[in-house]
């Protein structure tokens, strides 16, 4: 099995580091962190992720816009939106889940497991 890679789109350093730790606990070997849409797209094109976590509000844009740009280039992929604004995300589309901040480690683990089963 190839090593799994994740992309975290988050502009809060502490949240990004916590998500990195939690994703590594879920078996992701490598993680990139981006705090704006352009950086997120660059990271994804350089090292395509098997999973994206994204906040809603990020520097110079929104997480959904960053994810849409990535998916326009790489196709649909599993996404966990981790946001204190779940109401503005609306209904997540197939392959996307929403976890509300503040979150527990089990919320991230459950979302990763659910998405892994969806794409398997």
Automatic annotation (TrEMBL):
**Cross-referenced InterPro entries:** Bact_response_regulator, CheY-like_superfamily, Sig_transdc_resp-reg_receiver
Domain of life, per UniProt, equals Bacteria
SMART domains annotated for this entry? REC
Decide whether keyword Kinase is in the record: no
The modified positions for 4-aspartylphosphate read 55
KW Amino-acid biosynthesis (keyword) present: no
Domain annotation Response regulatory: ranges: 5-116
Keywords on this record?
Phosphoprotein
Record Pfam families: Response_reg
Q: What is this protein called?
A: Response regulator
**UniProt source species:** Caulobacter segnis
